[in-house]
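ok, trying the design again with the full structure, not the truncated one.
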């Protein structure tokens, strides 16, 4: 191979993902050189603590990330630190000085993608972020490139491994949320502070990124309706099981057309899905995402959504793409937000509910409950009642209605004197 100028790479962060990025870059240097058409060399690795024990070349470590990202000796910056600041400032500086960026940082992209793309455009640099959603699974490249000629209508999936592990375990054991979270932490499946995962922030960031790419529209994390899994009870799981369903935390991005006007609806919440649905068999820390497009039809992407090596695989794929673009003096795809569709509020979004009630078992109860649904223009799809001695268990599944109408219906039903307890309320997805 003729002598070609090496691509010099700065890696910011050397934790779970960064360590594997450095390992793959080093172990596969020769193959990468052939695949790219130029050698790839590590220019430096920015960390917080220089004296921490780690299996990377010590001479490359630095605490001066700001200096590294603007160094003339660096062509590409790989960011695997996370968080908004100071990474945002460093990546803007890198992009403005013409260095392409590869990042796994979903929180940053879900808030500041527009600024980052603008900085990339100002210098003609690339911005790639495959690892930010669903770890190793090639998903953003298909949305951004392979499906760029199609019209995507829906993206729905399981994009958080921690919550999927907890919900899978609750389904398998019948245990409650609290004790299952403790077990997940003990086994290392949940972080010491699991808030970002269990409260749905992580999935909401990923949903914002998916919706932005799928619908050519800027969607930020703040646009995403977000509910976590802390309220999912053993009773919810049991109710789902009783109806041949299971509970998953879903990220759902939809193109909605009403009265000839298009908008997008983006939400993250737990939902019951039929046990026969392909997403129902996605268990433990795995991720899976369904994409529906007009011409392509339905597609499913499945694999490891987290972990050092799987995430590093996606980072390296981006690094190869960026390096190839540099060798060819070209550029990868820029931001595509031309559609600028409005984001629909959750209240207007059509959903279906499963409602499980403990009611008094006497004449007229069902008609009182049914009247509340009728009053809110919510159509009932199925009712199941199991009598006991003085009370009964009533399970109602609705047809699609606006989420606001369904909420109001549940609030009013909860106040009926004949309703002893609203045992479980959960949205239903994956069936019609
Ligand atoms: P870790 O916490 O394991 O590692 C973070 C690294 O960043 C550490 O090496 C740390 O240095 C370094 N760091 C933190 N602050 C600074 C700073 N101010 N200056 C320089 N270095 C700093 O994180 P992960 O590897 O798990 O995650 C990295 C990114 O990848 C995040 O954006 C995350 O969301 C994303 N991601 C992670 C996945 C995973 O499975 N872990 C999956 C998909 C995406 P030190 O080692 O000295 O403490
Ligand atoms: N905390 C995330 C998860 C890591 O549980 O899926 C991957 O982004």
């Amino acid at each position: 191979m003729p002598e070609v100028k090496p691509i010099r790479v700065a890696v910011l962060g050397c934790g779970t993902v960064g360590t594997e990025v450095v390992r793959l870059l080093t172990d596969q240097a020769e193959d990468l050189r052939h695949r790219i058409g130029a050698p790839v060399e590590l220019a430096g690795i920015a960390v917080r603590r220089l004296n921490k024990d780690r299996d990377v070349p010590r001479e490359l470590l630095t605490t001066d990330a700001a200096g590294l990202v603007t160094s003339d000796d660096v062509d590409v910056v790989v960011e695997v630190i996370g968080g908004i600041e100071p990474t945002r400032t460093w990546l803007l500086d890198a992009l403005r000085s013409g260095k392409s960026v590869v990042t796994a940082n979903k929180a940053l992209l879900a808030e500041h993608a527009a600024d980052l793309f603008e900085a990339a455009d100002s210098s003609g640099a690339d911005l790639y972020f495959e690892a930010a959603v669903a770890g190793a699974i090639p998903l953003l490249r298909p949305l951004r490139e392979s499906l760029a000629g199609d019209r995507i209508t829906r993206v729905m999936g399981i994009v958080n491994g921690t919550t999927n592990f907890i919900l899978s375990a609750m389904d398998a054991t019948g245990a409650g949320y609290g004790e299952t979270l403790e077990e997940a932490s003990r086994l290392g499946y949940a972080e010491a502070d699991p808030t970002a995962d269990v409260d749905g922030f992580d999935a909401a960031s990923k949903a914002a990124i998916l919706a932005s790419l799928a619908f050519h529209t800027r969607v930020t994390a703040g646009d995403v309706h977000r509910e976590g899994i802390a309220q999912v009870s053993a009773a919810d799981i049991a109710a789902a099981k009783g109806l041949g369903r299971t509970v998953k935390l879903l990220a759902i991005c939809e193109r909605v057309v009403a009265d000839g006007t298009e908008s997008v609806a983006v939400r993250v919440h737990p939902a019951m899905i039929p046990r026969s649905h392909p997403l129902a068999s996605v268990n433990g820390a795995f991720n899976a995402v369904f994409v529906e497009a007009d011409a392509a039809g339905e597609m499913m992407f499945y694999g490891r959504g987290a972990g050092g090596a799987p995430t590093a695989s996606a980072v390296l794929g981006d690094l190869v793409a960026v390096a190839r673009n540099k060798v060819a003096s070209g550029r990868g795809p820029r931001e595509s937000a031309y559609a600028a569709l409005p984001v629909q509020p959750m209240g207007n979004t059509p959903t279906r509910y499963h409602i499980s009630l403990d009611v008094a078992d006497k004449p007229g109860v069902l008609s009182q409950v049914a009247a509340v649904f009728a009053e809110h223009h919510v159509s009932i799809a199925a009712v199941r009642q199991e009598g006991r001695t003085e009370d009964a268990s009533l399970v109602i599944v609705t047809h699609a209605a606006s989420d606001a109408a369904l909420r109001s219906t549940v609030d009013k039903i909860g106040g009926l004197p004949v309703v002893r307890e609203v045992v479980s309320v959960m949205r239903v997805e994956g069936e019609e």
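Keeping the full-length input from now on. The chain has three domains: 7-135+308-328, 140-303, 347-428.
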